[in-house]
Each structure stands twice: as structure tokens, then as C-alpha cells.
Amino acid sequence: MRRAVRPLGGSIVVLQADDLLKAHIHTDAPDAVFALGRTWGAVESTKAEDMRAQHRALQAKRRIVFVTDTACDLPDSIVFEHGIGLVPTQLILDDRVYRDRLELTSAEFFGRLRAGHDATTSQPTPQAFEEAFRDAARAGEHVIAVVLSKALSGTYASAEAAARRVDPDGRSITVVNSRAASLGEGLLVLRGLELARDGWTPAAIACELARVRDQSGGFFTVDNFERLVRSGRVGRVRAWLGPRLNMKPIMALSRDGTVDRVGRARGHPTLLRRVLELLERALSGRAPAPARRRSRRHPRVRRAARRHAGHALPAEAVPRRSDHAGDRGPRRDRGVGGLLSDRGRNKRMSGAL
Rounded to 5 degrees, what are φ and ψ at 105? Predict the structure, then answer.
């Protein structure tokens, strides 16, 4: 679909949700786009008037356009609203390759994983990034790509290779290593958008994102040890004992973007308490409170999370993160995680997910 509509315009975003295909394009010929869409199926809704208004507002190129990969977990609504270029991770099921969110949703991926299918993931190809960069360059003067942690994936290398092809002089494309995954990566994209609206230069935005990145992190756990064993993060004996003793590993994204095991807990209540302790320590810079004081201090962490609920973004567990960590999909009744991010020079945001 992207190849078919590319002659009609730029800033192309195509996403799939179940059997619904969504497309965003800056074009001078919206009727031609709709006519092309009808050749693929029923067109349920259009925004022709909005698209024309956006085109008039964007006669001059935007100063900065952002590109990221599907591991960022940003909802479709935000991707479309801000015209973010989205590069799909490759999902591999039974030797067949699918493009994340375009040809296979997270729910479908985890469903097949739980059904016993052999599944893994791979970084986007340089060609996929090259297409996204060329589309973004048509819509903006400078492209900033915020991508999955270099330590977790070859995504950063693919993005750099594509940037060298599209921009050999390195003047119009900046690639930022998020050293994160999921919304840790997505929040950096949103912060970059805020800075761009405030008139920051691309170089200044890259520096500020690196500062925010170095003061951000996250905690999570998994219900399944299989991928942790494959990655070498957990030994086979511990993986065997863990479910039998109801032990849960606590994982964290480190400053260099790797996934490290930082603790363990027996049972869900203890796990939640321990993650809140880690959040408290990370936010305050102090060691966890003594046991006799925890009952008073943890409600303050929970209240802080509730205060920032308006800034929260919902996110499913994504295939790329689960491929490294070992989960088999969202388990809202069992999973627990924490996310913290210093998003500004004088503001700190935290939350429990």
C-alpha cells in the first residue's frame, strides 16, 4: 500500500488494526487516494476536509519530522496526530516474516506464541528506514529518528545505515539511541515533539533527549522464563524453580540500554511492593525505606502515580520487548511494571503500570 500511494504524496503512515487498514498521507489529490483505497476494500471513513486544511497549513515544510520504530508502543492516534514516521519491526512466525502492526498485531503475535508457534523478532531492514526517511524528508527540513536501544537490537544500526544512504553528509537526519524500549522510547519521541514546537534546533533536541534518557528507566517482570533462559539472563535451574516457588524476576533497563535482573519476589503482592520500592529509590536517589516505614511511604508513590495519570499512555506488551524478556503477552491481572522519566529540567514524572 505504501508503494502504491507514494506517487500521490508524502509523510505516509499506514497502520493495521484487526481487519481495518488506516492510512495518513499529505497529498494534493485526496480523491485519487480514496479511489485507490476503494480498490482494496470498503472505505469506512475519510477526512478529506481535514487533510486539505493540513496541506494548506503545511505549504512550507515543517522544521522537524520525527521517525521511530514500532517498539515505541505509541498509540495509533498519537502517530497520526503528529505525523510520526513509523518503521515496523519484523515478526518471524514459523519461518514467515510479518511487519509489526501492519501485517500482524501484537495480540495476534502473542496468540500464536501461546499456541506453541515458533516465534522471534528481527530489527527493521535498512530499506524500511530508508523509505521512512525519504518520506519524512519530503515533509520536513530535518528528520530526527528515535529508535530502540542499540544494546537490545540491530535497529539502531539499520537506522544509521539508512541515514548514511539518504543523507551522506549527515546534515538533515539525526539518529538518537533511546537506550530504551516500549514507552521509554515513545516518551522520548513525545518530548522531542514538544521541544520542536518550542523552536529548539535539531542538535539541541538531540542533546536534551540524551539528558532525559540518562535520567529515565523502567522496571518490569515476566510470567514465563523461556526467553530469559534463551538469552542467558536466567539459568535453567532457576527457570525450573521459579514457577514452582512462585518467584518472579524483576528486570530493569539500565543506563546503557541493556535489560538487567535487579531483584526477585515471591508472589504478586510482594512483587508489587518491591517494584514500588525500586521506583521510590530511583525517584528519590535514596535507598529503600526500612520495612517498618514502608506502609507509610508506598502510598505516596501510588499517589504520585495517580497525580500523573493524565500524562499516562496505555501500552500493550510488544513483541520486541517480550522476545528479549520472556513474556508471552499481556497479563493485566498478573504483570507489574514501573516507568519513570525526567521529562524536563524542573519536572519529574513517575508512574506504576
Answer: -85, 165
- Give the chain's residues under pLDDT 70: 17-18, 48-60, 224-245, 285-353
Grid coordinates representing 32 are 485519487
- How far are the Cα atoms of 150, 157, 175, 334 from residue 153, in angstroms, in the given order? 6, 8, 15, 27
Rounded Cα distance between 295 and 118, Å, is 44
Locate 115 and state its grid cell: 499456541
**Nearest of 133, 135, 139, 172 to residue 55 by alpha carbon:** 139
DSSP letter for each residue of 103-144: TB-HHHHHHHHHTT--EEEEPPPHHHHHHHHHHHHHHEEEEE
Q: What is the DSSP string of 290-345?
A: PHHHHHHHHHHHHHHHHHTGGG----PPPHHHHHHH---S--TTT--EEEEE--SS
Residues 6 or more apart whose Cβ sits within 8 Å of residue 109: 91, 93, 98, 100, 119, 319
Q: Can you tell me the distance from the alpha carbon of 23 to that of 9, in angstroms, rounded to the nearest whole number?
A: 12
Query: Per residue in 266-309, pLDDT tens?
Result: 888 888 888 888 888 887 765 444 433 333 444 554 555 555 44
Query: Could you report the per-residue pLDDT of 238-272, keeping only the tens digit for each?
Result: 655 666 667 888 888 888 888 888 888 888 888 88
Which residue do the cell numbers 491481572 mark?
A: 333
Question: Are 102 and 15 in contact, with CB atoms under 8 Å apart?
Answer: yes
What nine digits make up the cell of 207?
A: 542533546
pTM for the complete prediction?
0.69
Q: How far apart are CA 72 and CA 57, in angstroms?
A: 28
Structural domains in the chain, sorted by start = 1-59 (no CATH), 61-89+124-213 (3.40.50.10170), 217-352 (3.30.1180)
Phi, psi dihedral angles at 92 (to 5 degrees): -115, 115
The single residue listed with the C-alpha cell 476536509 is 49
